[in-house]
Amino acid sequence: MADDEPVDLNAWATPPGPFRLSWTEEVLRDALKYARRIEERPYEIFLQGSYANETNIDESSDVDLVVLLKLPFEENVDALDAHDITNFNERYEQDPYGWRQFRAAVIASLKESFFVHEGDKTAGIQDWDSLVRVPADILPAIEYRLYSGFPSPGHEIYEEGVFFRNGAQQPIVNFPKQHLARGRKKDFDTGRRFKQVVRIVKRLRRWAIKNNEMTKATIPPYFIECFLYNVPDGIYRSDTPAQAADGAIECLYEWCHDDRPAFEALPCQNGLIPIFGDGPDQWEAGRGVSAIDALSEAWAKLPK
User: Fold this and answer.
1) Nearest CA to 161 among 53, 44, 275?
2) Is the pLDDT score of 1 beyond 50?
3) Rg of the Cα trace of the chain?
4) Partners of 159 in the beta sheet?
5) Distance in angstroms (rounded) separating the CA atoms of residues 129 and 126
6) Contact present, 298 and 3 (Cβ < 8 Å)
């Protein structure tokens, strides 16, 4: 039976307390420098996921960090003409070093300083002396470039993403920096309502799982954020977070049932990858409809 205790939706919209993410990032950076396995390679460390997007609902949830090799990189040059391809080939040479070697070097470096659990995509770390305040998931990746132009050897136009492989060695491309930037703009354009609603719906998911209204597999938090990103800004400009959440859930429900083609064409928050497709990080459209139905039913049952 569902929990009948009324929930405070204003509290659900509020982020948890502040957390010094820099502590985790600095400890990771120091560990990689100490091991000296990748010091000759240009790399970057940055946050992704709910902490970076400020949509986390727990202070203790894992921090997601990317260790990104900058050169060499993976590329998509399908949009380039013959002239641009020539410029690309003049600018860059093949390098046998790639994602597999970089990932192996990063994992070996982490093992010198942390307890490491290797997962399907990331390596989970915990610090021996608790300097890392919460567990962290580390994604070793290499830069991915989605080219739209290369008019001269010194002038290239592309979107920067990340490339890695899962445990089945399927290639995965994502664009976490664009996801972050577009989420920030959406939040600003909606008077800070967008991220409030994301937190509410993430907590709705947790409530529904606790009360056996859905399972964790029904809808991952990442897709909650992507679906809600596509809701028109005007729906979020409501008097309260609860009203905005109600409008957003209703919008998604009507979308998937009344305009299925538009629903199936929705992009991820990064604006570059469709939510639905046959890629290893994409969804089947029918599963998306089932997820929206489950969220709508849970919202109707939630004691407010």
Assistant:
1) 44
2) no
3) 21
4) 146
5) 9
6) no
- In this predicted structure, the answer to whether residue 127 has a pLDDT above a threshold of 50 is yes
Model confidence at 129: pLDDT above 60: no
Helices and strands (H and E) in the chain: how many: 12, 7
Q: Which of 19, 108, 20 is nearest to 67 (CA)?
A: 108
Helices 99-111, 21-35: axis angle to 10 degrees equals: 100
User: 267: exposed, middle or buried (C-beta count within 10 Å: 0-12, 13-18, 19+)?
Assistant: middle
Q: Return the SS3 of 272.
A: coil
Domains and CATH numbers, the chain: 13-174 (3.30.460), 180-301 (no CATH)
The phi-psi region of residue 55 (left if phi > 0; otherwise alpha if psi is between -120 and 50; otherwise beta) is alpha
State the DSSP code for 92.
Answer: -
Check if the beta carbon of residue 141 is closer than 8 Å to that of residue 66. yes
DSSP-assigned states of every residue in 223-253: HHHHHHHTS-HHHH-SSSHHHHHHHHHHHHH
Instruction: Match 């560990």 to its residue by tokens.
Output: 31
**pLDDT exceeding 70 applies to what percent of the chain?**
93
CA angle 130, 136, 139 (to 5 degrees): 145
The Cα–Cα gap between 123 and 139 comes to 7
Q: How far apart are CA 225 and CA 186, in angstroms?
A: 11
Residue 78 phi/psi, 5° resolution? Answer: -60, -30
Residue 86 has pLDDT above 90, yes or no: yes
Q: Is 267 helix (H, G, I), strand (E, B) or coil?
A: strand
Q: How far apart are CA 232 and CA 252, in angstroms?
A: 10
* Residues in CB range of 243: below 8 A, 6 or more apart: none
Distances (CA, A) of 76 to 87, 149, 158, 178, 265: 14, 11, 9, 17, 22
